[in-house]
Amino acid sequence: MSATIFPAASFAELRARLNDLPSTDVRSIAAARVRQDNLTKPQGALGRLEELAIFMAGWQGCERPVLKRAQAVVFAGNHGICRQGVNPFPQEVTAQMVANFRRGGAAINQLCRISGADLSIIPLDLDLPTHDFTEDYAMTELEVLDAMARGAASVDTNCDIILLGEMGIGNSTVASAQARALFGGTAWDWVGPGTGADAEKIAIKARVIEAGIDRHKQVIDNPFVILAAFGGREQAAICGAILAARMARIPVLLDGFICTAAASILAPLGIGALDHCLVGHSSAEPGHRMLLSAIGKKAILDLGMRLGEGSGAAIALGIVRAALAAHEGMATFAEAGISV
Amino acid sequence: MSATIFPAASFAELRARLNDLPSTDVRSIAAARVRQDNLTKPQGALGRLEELAIFMAGWQGCERPVLKRAQAVVFAGNHGICRQGVNPFPQEVTAQMVANFRRGGAAINQLCRISGADLSIIPLDLDLPTHDFTEDYAMTELEVLDAMARGAASVDTNCDIILLGEMGIGNSTVASAQARALFGGTAWDWVGPGTGADAEKIAIKARVIEAGIDRHKQVIDNPFVILAAFGGREQAAICGAILAARMARIPVLLDGFICTAAASILAPLGIGALDHCLVGHSSAEPGHRMLLSAIGKKAILDLGMRLGEGSGAAIALGIVRAALAAHEGMATFAEAGISV
């Protein structure tokens, strides 16, 4: 399916292919809503669970959606901006954490096991960090398109839902820069501690983001160019995976601040490119709330987490499972013979 | 274990037995915190999950707590206050929903299956509603103590966690009356739609609660007497189950507004009787937030649910499972050979 979008030779070619994205199925939504209203509970009493069941019905195109297979994809990348001292961890940690994912020792391994998701780890040229965005475009157009295509290719189109996550030392600075470029404000509105930056490092983050905005301000009227200017390969891959999932009408569960900032590149295109995306959790990273507001999404969970790796998406998958289990398994008032 | 508290012949005898409740194990808490700080993530990055793992460690008395068996107990009762027209559903629905629980057709059945909890349904004299609290005590002292003892006896002390829930047409009015009596304000601060009361029915709720407060105002300086004045058997049973779990150092997951209001009877005793209790979710019922604030608890989830039956506790169990899976399964920085 993703072959209809990728590979693309230019941003213009990619953009032209996005004008007719598949949309949700209104008949299945209507049927699922009728079912919810007849199940043995006061109407609306399952709150967000009812909305999630109806959302899944719309994208799967059936009254009773299923979750037989869930795939979590974690993209990893390295970032030239690290040379500005934005992160307390050395850049080797990205590859070390990829090794930890592969050995099963990270949070995301445990959380995928608990929530029943298969985990794919996709490191993207970790030995080739992007350029320092205060000095140049972080990536060329072709590098962006290549990473997007690799993201798209990582999606298993036999899945019922895709969870997206990321790992990359320095990428909370990248995310804040993207949000600043896409939605305005000042860098201070979007920076936060990330993996644990202190006040001094947060000030460095804000300074390098404003320097980056100043460097690129003439050219960032196009979201894909913002991705080239500031993004990393994992951000581009997330965009590619979201589009590939959409072509296959597979719902997507985004993770926290960095993942949402990557996805937000697709928001200003004005084509509803994130309509099939849920946001798993509201991150403790302070910019996430404003980012969710900017793209009109409400996170499922708010557990004070700020880890990345897809961890919030993996936990939220359990809530989607609960929603579908109630939708599928509950008796109707008529079946249960209850007085209404 | 609960034999040390129940049966009790009077509220005074019960109260005297509660002076030396088991407490959390500070060594296990310290050990669990050290472990969390060494796992492969920035310190604190798992937010509430870290707190939950440490909480469970304290009550289970071990660095790495487990969840082999979870028991959900749903108590059902009927309420004399229904004759005042506080609920849009007829009172027979309580027994019909108990039958639905037993056939596996309710939300709680699906949610317990998903979260791996065994479900116990305990109907309490459904053919003997309590008295109308605007005219008399809802229950006698002995009826309260009997229901508490039955609640305590329903706890399987081989469990690693107990989830509590309730069903009873009219019991959101009972919960609001309890909250009003325990924590003040006016009835209007504590009433809400419950199973779906319209504005007219909500006004009836507020009026009957103020009438009840007026009827009992001379005697409600004792929380157990508040339970007798307004409560139903399911509220008393929830209190008994909480105390029985505490004697066995088993953590408790409370559900929403009605379950929390029942548990709140134990809060003003000043003995930390709810220290082993978590609250699964913040209900859409408007009084729940104020109630959580009054007892100093922060709910795990906020999904706009207002169903009862233990449904919010069952979903929150999945979050506790995720917390323990991360705590148990993650590698430390040293094990993973990561640069810190």
Layout of helices and strands:
Two copies of one chain form a homodimer.
Chain A: H1 11-16, H2 26-38, H3 48-60, E1 70-76, H4 92-103, H5 107-115, E2 117-123, H6 141-153, E3 161-167, H7 171-183, H8 187-190, H9 199-216, H10 223-230, H11 233-247, E4 252-254, H12 257-263, E5 277-279, H13 287-295, H14 311-329, H15 333-336
Parallel strand pairs in A: 1-2, 1-3, 3-4, 4-5
Notes on the structure:
Chain A contains 15 helices and 5 strands. Chain A has 340 residues and is an alpha/beta fold. Chain A has a single domain (2-18, 68-319), classed as Nicotinate-nucleotide-dimethylbenzimidazole phosphoribosyltransferase (CobT), large domain (Rossmann fold), CATH 3.40.50. A 5-stranded parallel sheet of chain A has the order 2-1-3-4-5, with helices on both faces. The longest helix of chain A has 19 residues, at 311-329. The relative contact order of chain A is 0.19. The interface between A and B is large, with 60 and 60 residues.
Short description:
The structure is a homodimer. Chain A is α/β, with parallel strands linked by helices and about 350 residues long. Helices cover about 50% and strands about 10% of the residues of chain A.
Greatest chain-chain interface? A-B, 60 and 60 residues
- Largest sheet composition of chain A: 5 strands, parallel
Mean pLDDT of chain A: 96
Could you state the order of secondary-structure elements of chain A as H and E? HHHEHHEHEHHHHHEHEHHH
Strand content of chain A: 5-15%
Helix content of chain A: 40-55%
> What structural class should be given to the helix and strand makeup of chain A?
alpha/beta
CATH class of chain A: Alpha Beta
What multimeric state do the chains show? Answer: homodimer
Distance between the termini of chain A: 47 Å
CATH topology of chain A: Rossmann fold
Shape of chain A: globular
CATH architecture descriptor name of chain A: 3-Layer(aba) Sandwich
Gyration radius over CA of chain A: 20 Å
- Strands of chain A, total number: 5
Instruction: Give the uncertain stretches of chain A in residue-range form.
Output: none
Number of domains of chain A: 1
